[in-house]
Predict the structure.
Amino acid sequence: MSGRTADVGPGPAGRRNFLAELLAIACGGLATLAPIGAGLWAFLDPLRRKGAAASFLPVTELSALPDDGVPRQFAVITERADAWTGFAAEPVGAVYLRREKGSGTVEALSATCPHAGCFVEMESGGRCFRCPCHNSTFTLDGGIVAPSPSPRPMDALECRVAKNGEVEVKWQKFRAGVAEKVVQ
Amino acid sequence: MNRPDTRSSVARKGPLGRLADFLDDRTGYRAVMHEALYERVPGGARWRYVWGSTLVFAFMTQVITGLFLWASYSASAQTAWESVYYIQHEMTGGWLLRGIHHFMAQAMVVLLALHLLQVVIDGAYRAPREVNFWLGLVLMMLVLGMALTGYLLPWDQKGYWATIVATNLAGIVPVFGPSIQQLVIGGTEYGHHTLTRFFALHAGFLPGALILMLVVHLALFRKHGLHAKRPFTRPDAMFWPDQVLKDAVAMLAVMAVVLGVILMPALRAMLAGEPVHAGHLGAELGAPADPSLPYAAARPEWYFLFLFQFLKVFEGWGATGEFLGAIVVPGLIMGVMFLMPIIGNWRLGHRFNVAFTLGVVAGAGLLTAMALNEDYYALWVDKAPLAEAQKLYDETGGDETKLAAALGGDTAKIAAVEKQWKQLEKIRHSQAFLDAAKQARLDAARAIELAGRPEKIPPAGMLELVRADAKSQGPRLFAQHCASCHAHVDPRSPGAEAILAKASAANLFEFGRASWMRGLLDPAQVAGPAYFGNTAHKEGDMVSFVQGDLADADQWKKDDIEAVIVAMASEAGLADPGVQPAILERGRALVADGERCGGCHKLGDNGTDLGSAPDLTGWGTRDWLVGIITDPTHARFYGDTNDRMPSFGKAAEGAAPMLSPQQIGLLADWLRGDWYRP
């Protein structure tokens, strides 16, 4: 092993080299910092992006929603921006709307399960909601049916009936898996 | 291994030292570090040994920046340009990340050349290092392959057209060429799979192969030790820290150069007091790839320019020439390089190797210079002494017999002028490239402007947006279909007169605006080249009306004419916003008046029938312009008095019209100046 020495260790030579070692590490570190720094700078870009502000979106006509207390599923349609692409109005999610007998007001529930974000479905019998992922079960007004993996009831959305008879829902998403309803 | 017992003083060690001992016991990392760092450098550390290390550093930089770019890049014909745009212009620091990747790739090619030169000059390819030399050559080809594949990934005009050329050249390889080409581009057409394959090559296959080879390259390097250059002037030193320090300084210098190139325009702008747009720093992004648009500015990246120029040596040889220039000669050069370790054993062999390598580098440098000179010739040549020759060229149309006649058969003079004509031709070629490059920059800037609209890019991709953009498509359509008769030039601009004189129909600059109408109603201009002067209407009713009635101050007061001008611009929707409604009313009434304009022209329901003169209802609006471009012979426009204007939107039986409704709409929007403005 001709090109290698075995006797280099802490000693006078090592101390003389201290400055050189420090400089080498500094120069190499600085040079390497540029690509890593630039990479992280760009990689962390999503953290500064905020979701679109919540707004009331027309979902259906009041006349299209029977007043029988049975929830019905409606698509939420809105414009959407995905990084560089702008989409014209298209379905971005779903809500369940429900109207009691003779009532002019509408209750809206987000179809997104508060447990882990799956799409909650109406049970085939129409007696309750059930999430197909982990079997979280909810009553027709969104309440928890124990025992349930979901930490909170289904998320109610603000809902109003406009003068022209359109049912408008404030489309919002909430953090999954926590007991409190926190806007995402 | 005989190394000092670093554990003899365990008792005095702190927790960190004990953790290090724990790890060393289980991994033996100290021995590995020791082996890696304490390599003897015979004759001491030297700057000439840094090239290999800077190359490894450059490659590591590419891996790091490449992985981060990967996190935001999307390889498909509808998303590649779009995602690169997003990285460059919308993500924080994206411009810096992409800039480092782009310019470090170029630095890497330079470092490769330096490393190779140093190895050949020092004779480091000799036994026992032959295999490592060959590995180095393979590594070089892998790096060039990554440069070639990376150029396409933004899917912009220059990457697209450069790749078309490169893959077509691959296609001329005998027997397997067409199959290789089809495999590389992922089919017979350039598109999604060209990108996915190039991306897989660029970020997977090639760097994977490179890392494998690099590991062996470095292992062999350590096995044989550093090839020290004699004579030694200083005592031996250790790799760490002496040589590492020099390597690290060189790495920092390389990075400083790369960052300098990226940040230089920002510094210049700051010194000039101009705003700095981060998105415009670093690597450029051309307009999105468009197979339907000629791209005369197509050039490979500068380090491939010599190959591009070399092909021109074989111009006129047809496919054989291309085969020779693109495959055979570069192949032979690589062949000789591979044989260098063997040639080096012969007497004078080493000298041959050095001379050959320097010759290739010098040749490549010369070819690069020639290529640049051909492209930029018009910028630095003095055109003044060529004025006479240019005049003769214009007079004779470049015809040699006519030139001989013009110069009275003076052979010496004819020869001199013909030589200058050759120079003029070179200038024309160069100017064509410069114009194309300028157009490419404008197109790129416009595409980036459009991509930044609040509506963002449509799902079909950027090309759809660019093709529907009146500002960039209007001039092209106009040049192609309208400019053979119509001018579109600001009459106040220098050189406008010559352009107007050549036109055989009206100047459409600012058509629909007050400025245009003011010229039409000017007795001095209406029969001039900017209006009816060069048309069949030169002696028509409108000209005699403007030069007769309108010029008579008793019939038409100046204010009335101005009111008509404003009313017409308002009809087009292009009047100045500050116009008084009363003036508008008056102008409109004058135009509608059967005793005045309304005698021939219809305006709204003024009772004038169509057929005698163009309908002024909605004159200059998009709808009106679309109508006249579609069919000027319609009764709403010129009817049977139409001069020579074709009906662009009307098709003959069983044929397609000359222009599609979308194209006609783009022309109308462009003439009206109706396009997206940020």
Summary: The first strand of chain B starts at residue 40 and ends at 41.
